[in-house]
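Collaborator request, handled under Task 6.
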Amino acid sequence: MFLSKKQKFFKNTAVVSFFTMISRVFGYIRDAVIFIFISNANGALDAFFVAFRIPNFFRRIFGEGALSTAYVPVLSDYKSTNNSNDVKEFINASITYLSIILIVISIIGVIVTPVLIYLIAPGFVHSEFGQYELSYELLRITFPYMFFICLTAVASSILNSYEKFSIPALTPAILNISLIISVLFFSPFFSEPVYALAWGLMIAGILQLLFVTHSLYRLKLYPKFCYNKNHPGIKKIKELMLPVIFGSSVTQINLIFDTIIASFLITGSISWLYMSDRFIELPLALFGISIATVLLPKLSEHYNKSDTKSYNSTINWGLKLGIIISIPACIGLILLAKPILITLLQYREFSENDVNMTALSLMAFALGLPGMIGAKILITNYYSRKNTKYPVKAALIAVIFNFILNISLVLYLLKINFEGVHAGLALATTISAYINFYYLFKNAVKTKILIINKSLLNVFLKSFLASIIMAILILNFDLNAKSWEELILFERIRDLFLIIFSSSIIYFIMLYMLKVSPKNIK
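C-alpha cells returned to the collaborator:
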C-alpha cells in the first residue's frame, strides 16, 4: 500500500520525533543526575555549563543549523543528476575539506580558551570561587568536541537526504548516556567532579561520529580522503553557509548574550537558565527541528523540480503541524513548570530555591515556544531555495532587539529588587523569537515564496481553543508546590504522568471534534 505525500511526511516526522524523544528522555535523566549529584554551591556547575556552551553553540548552529541546512540542498542537486560517482566525489571532497578546517579551529580554540571564557563569561573573572580558571581548564577538554559533532552533523545530513532519519535522531542519546555514566561512576575519582563531565563529553563526541559513519558505510557512502578545495559543491556550500550561520542561529546567539550577562548575576543564574532552556529543547527538538529536518530535503526536491503546488502544500503542512504542537506545549510548560521541576530535579543538591528560580525562566522561555518552532519551519522555506540573505536580515533585527531587551529588562528587575533577575534574559529571548518569526513570515508572504493556505488561520484558532480547554483541565489538579514536595518520587511521577496524559487526551479529542488532526490537515 502506497502512502500519500502527507502521510509519508507525517510518518517521517513521527520517526524523527520518536527517536529524538528517546534522546531527550536520556537528556533529562542526564541533567537530573548532574544537578542531583553535583553541587553548585561553589559555582562549579556554572563553570561547566559555560565551558559546554561554546562547543554546544557550534553543535546547535552546525548540527541543527548552518552546515546541515547548506549541505542538504547542495547534496540534493547532485542526487538529482542520478550520477552516484558525482555524489560520492562531492561527499569525499566536502568532508575532507571540512575536517581540515575543524582541526585548525579546534587547535586555535584550545590555545585561546582563557580569551573565550573572558568573552562569554566576563563576570567570572571576579568570582571568589575561581570560576574563571575552572571554566577555561574545562573548555580545553570540551572544545575539541566541536570537531566530532560537526562531522557527525554532516553525516547525519547525508543520512537525512536518503530518508534515513532514525540514526541521526537517536545519536544525541550517546552523549547523554556518556555524561550519565561519567557522573555516576567516574566523578568520585576527580577532586572537582565536573572534570568527569568534560571528559565524558569528549568521549561522547567520538562515539557519536562512529555511530553515524557506520550507517554511511552501510549505504556505501563512507567518505574517503579527497582534498579538492575547488570542488564546485564546496563553493556552493560556502556561498550558502556563511549567511546561514547567522540566520539559523538567532536563538543560540541570544543565549550567548544571556550567558554573558548572567555571569554578572548571582551564582546559579547560568545553571537556572541552562536547565530551563533544556526543558524548552524537548518540544523544540521533537517538533520544530524534526519537522524542519523532514521538510528541507523534500522542499529542496520540489523546488528543483519546479513543483510549486507540492512545495506550498508541504510548507503549509509543516506550519500547521507546528501550530498543533507548539500552542499546547507552551501552555502546558507554563502551568506545570514547578511540578515538572520538583518531580525531576528537587532531590539532594537541587533545592527549593533552585526550583523557584528555574521555574521563572522556564515559564518565560515557554512563552516563546510557538515563535521558535515557527521560525525553524519557516527558515527551511528560504534555505530550500538557497535564499540565505533575508533570514540573516531577520535574525540581525531579532538579535539587536534581544540585546536591548536583555539590558533593559535586567536593569528594570534589579531596580525593583525582583528575586529572579535571570528570568528577564529568558523573556528577552522569547520576544526576539517572535520578532524573528514575524519578519520571516511577513517577507515570505509578501514576496510570494510562501502561499498561505486559507485553512492555516482555522487550524490556529481551533488549536488555541483546544489548548484553553486543556488548560482548564490542568488547573483542576493540585499544582501547589508544597503539595508536590510532600510526595515521594513514585507519587510525583505518577501524578505528573496523569496530568500530562489526561490533558493530552483532552486536547486531541477536542481537535478531533473540531476536525483537525496531524494526518488530515490540508
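The cover message to the collaborator said: "Residues 13-247 form one domain. The chain has a mean pLDDT of 83. Please let us know whether this matches your experimental observations."
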